[in-house]
Hints:
CATH topology of the largest domain in chain B: Arc Repressor Mutant, subunit A
Distance between the termini of chain A: 71 Å
Order of helices and strands of chain A: HHHHHHHHHHHHEEEEEEEEHE
Shape of chain B: globular
Number of strands of chain B: 0
Strand content of chain B: under 5%
CATH class of the largest domain in chain B: Mainly Alpha
Order of helices and strands of chain B: HHHHHHHHH
Largest sheet of chain B: none
Distance between the termini of chain B: 51 Å
Radius of gyration of chain A: 37 Å
Number of domains of chain A: 2
Structural class of chain B: mainly alpha
Strand content of chain A: 15-25%
Helix content of chain A: 25-40%
Largest interface: A-B, 29 and 41 residues
CATH superfamily of the largest domain in chain B: Winged helix-like DNA-binding domain superfamily/Winged helix DNA-binding domain
Helix content of chain B: over 70%
Number of domains of chain B: 2
Oligomer: heterodimer
Amino acid sequence: MSNNNIDNNWIDAIKSKTSQATRQVPDGAWETIAKSMAQQQATAKAKHAFITPRMWKAVAAAAVVAIVATTGFIFVNDNSEQPQLAQTVKKTVEQPADDATHGTPTTTVDSATQSVIDTPAPSSVQSLSPTLIAQNTSTPTPARRPQPVASRKAASRNTGHHGTSRNSSEPDDQLIDNQLMANSDNDFIDLAEYPNEFNPEDYFYDIETMQALEELYAQYDNVMNQEAMEPWKSYTDSTYQQHLVYDANARRAAREKMALTKHHKENTMLLAAYGNGLISTDHNSTVNSSSAPMLLPPSNNSGMMMAPAAPGVTPRVAPPVNYNYHHHMPLTAGLTFNKRIVRNLYGSVGLNFTSMTSDVTPDNGGNEFKQRIMLVGLPFGVKWNFWRYRGLSTFVGGEALVERVVSAKFNNESVTIKRLQWSIHATAGLQYNFNRNIGVYLAPKLSHYITTMPLNTIRNEHPLNFNLQLGLSFDF
Amino acid sequence: MMSEKEISQGCKRGIASAQRELFDRYSPMLMAVIYRYVADDDDANDVLQDTFIKIFSTIHSFKWKDVGSLQAWTTRIAVNTSLNFLRQQKRLKASTLPVETLSEPPDDSDETTSQAVNDLDVSTIMQMIAELPDGYRTVFNLYCLDGFSHKEIAEQLGISEKTSSSQLARAKALLAKRIKAYINEQNNTTTQ
């Protein structure tokens, strides 16, 4: 046996014995290790994380508060859609008419009024007829038709205020008033609920115009009081009542407009003015084409018109104008916060903003203009991560989204839309997390818009659509 | 009872129960390894904690191959951690070596047999190794018990391979001398 062999043998024996050696570990060693590991992890996160865990909680709380506050401000304050009437009227009367088609000038309310003022004092009922103003706006105006906005009380109150030369001896006037009120009961809405929604001065005639109208209608009343000018006597019984309706409405219109002149800053006067449109609209069906219609009924997409015409005078009604739309791709930006509910299942809530723009071209040769709509949305849903490898994960999810229009412009005219837009979404996507809190995701999304908007948008045309989302995700 | 593979996978996912299982299963063995290097219970306890923290923080780099691979990997970490500790304590400098070891190593190989070693219990052997000077003990542990080559020892300790070989010879001679002395002492006690 060589020295080397002897040497290796005892060394191997030592190795064999020590390889099985164990030594008592002091009590509390594991607790110390676990504590040290937790401290090291916290330190490492603090070094690498832009926002520390404690800050994440604060950020998350701030985000939730911001979302709730924004949502409350935008969504909860949804009392009615009525106030959009003012904007509707304003927009409607400013839309152009197709003059060439009818050969008679069709103007806006303001210019119509001006044309009445410029007209010399008439000598007959026919010459006193104000221009009928009407404009069908086809699709673009808010679909919800202007609601009748006058109350019976307001109308009667205004009637009492006008102070015009109404002939109280006319028995038919009161009769017609009663009939009109009875027929309109279901449509009357007390606008006292909307005392501060709009400024009458923005939408109604100025003082000089109303004074001219007052003078004009006073002349009209005088003419109508003359026995020689009792036109209904020459009509058949079937049309008699219709002309009474016409006559009463014509005078009521004059009274109410004058009341506006005197009390144009009072909301009750404003209501009365709209009441004129109500009465005319409501009774249009009782006035056939053989007599002068007081007012053409607004269609779902049309505005209202007002002002009476004399019997036998053909109303000047503008034809409908159709609009062609070219919708641009909607753009959405937003934040989504995910909170783990259970393992791999997250609840999500967020806030997003959507911009939808459309090019609108009227088919009557008018200039192209833009329709712009801005919405703020509150998405909420669930997400399930079904596969994960390091920072990469795949997920499927469902989401509901409620949106509110914060701005809608149709050719620089603001339109108020307070209807909430609901939609549901299904998505499947791929996410890469840079750290435990922040990730970027790419997700195809199938969306269905349940409620539609009064304005013509790409969502109305395609309630079910497919899109691709790229975004940042914050998990906390 | 979790298998070695399950423990490693659980630790990679950060599962506390797997980490605790790894600690319970390997900490006594690793404590013994560490004690062979640092030769002090308190120091060994500190190094053990550092070792497990390093294990858990680098477990993602471990690839399980077969049974024993996790133990070998943890042992390697324990050895490296122990060496780092000794470096920090500046206990690996040549100046710390005793003067007597700088002379030629005694030729005691013919007098120390495996039988003599086998008659010793583990704690006695561990104590004898621990009583070796730091430099000798480190080279002896690395080369004879943990399978390092002289080249690797030279790289680890920052010395030449020749120095490593020389210190190993002196370490073995010193250990053999102490084993013989211990056996002789035991024999004398028995005869009396």
